[in-house]
Amino acid sequence: MGGMEERTLKSPSHCTGTEQDYDVRQWDTREGCEVRQILDRVADKWSLLAIAHLERQTLRFSELRRRIEGISQRMLTVTLRQLERDGLVTRTVHPVVPPRVEYTLTPLGATLHATIQALVDWTEDHQEEIAAARASYDSRQDDLAALS
Amino acid sequence: MGGMEERTLKSPSHCTGTEQDYDVRQWDTREGCEVRQILDRVADKWSLLAIAHLERQTLRFSELRRRIEGISQRMLTVTLRQLERDGLVTRTVHPVVPPRVEYTLTPLGATLHATIQALVDWTEDHQEEIAAARASYDSRQDDLAALS
DNA sequence: CGGTATCCGTTCTGATACTG
DNA sequence: CAGTATCAGAACGGATACCG
Asked: Which domain of life does the UniProt lineage start with (chains A, B) (predicted)?
């Protein structure tokens, strides 16, 4: 999703500008819109998983890596750094050898967890409907293609 | 995010496989996991916006395009096709000239709207905290860099 | 109007190698 | 252990041109 090189904090507030007549207007695409930017981060695949796994427990880097199956070391590092920067995760380095680095949700991160869980729950609850819809759509497409 | 060329429906169910001892296990990264795949789609930037704008109203292609500022014609088409395939959006073609194509949320899509809105609301509610966290993190980084 | 097809630069991501 | 650095391939996404 969005890059991470922007450090433009031009319009920190609600992106009100050219008014439109819908309640979705606060979070559309305008340049410098904070909400959209944060949403991109928060709706990110790996971020979602990391936050979910950190619920109510502190985990080490390698523990997280094992739990989030399929994530590369690089992506886990990048994701955790972003979450740390956003104040959603705390990173604690214990000055021992070998190094021990622990990650925890901040209170802010904890509040996000519930919301994320709702999205995950929705997905679980409706996965069969979606799979069915896809199968149906695909077979219709196949039928159309067969007419050629 | 995820590509759209996979039509593998190998494990349509809950991704239970190599068991792990956490409640997040149902939606991790294993190959063929439906939940993760759907989540990627649903958490997509443009999908979110499209669904949000379609709440309680039918919109034409061009209307959607105007409302979702910054989306290209191609991305809108791609997004709407995905949502249609997933059974979240209905596409109705009126056989008139010039063509008139209308999009509506399906009942399934409507149930997703509430969840998405919760995520958006969270983002709006906490955007200042996040902006502050970022600023704080960045200045700390700058301080560190200054020591070189 | 509502697309589709194509080209192409940008971003993302995984693999690999190396380090304190 | 917990990274960082680098590189290459894949995916994303915009611009453009064309069509029913």
From this structure: Bacteria
Could you report the per-residue pLDDT of A21-36, keeping only the tens digit for each?
Answer: 445 655 554 445 677 7
CA distance from start to end of chain A = 37
How does pLDDT run across A35-87, given as a tens digit for each residue?
778 888 888 888 988 999 998 899 999 999 999 888 999 999 999 999 999 99
Chain B partners of A20 at a C-beta cutoff of 8 Å? 67
**Cα(B84)–Cα(B79) distance, rounded to whole angstroms?**
9
10 Å CB burial of residue B8 (0-12, 13-18, 19+) is: exposed
Rounded distance in angstroms from the CA atom of residue A50 to the C1' atom of nucleotide D17: 43
Pair of tokens at residue A146 = 């067969």
| CA B25 – CA B44 distance, rounded (Å) | 22
Which of B18, B19, B38, B36 shows the shortest CA–CA distance to B27? B36
- Rounded to the nearest angstrom, the minimum Cα separation between A106 and chain B is 11
Alpha helices in B68-106 (DSSP H): 73-85
* Domain definitions of chain B by residue range: 28-147
- B133 token code pair: 């966290």
Residue type, A34: E
Neighbours of A105 (CB within 10 A): 22
Pick from A17, A4, A13: which is nearest to A44 by CA? A4
CA–C1' B17–C20 (A) = 38
Q: Count of CB contacts below 8 A, A vs B? A: 183
pTM of the model: 0.80
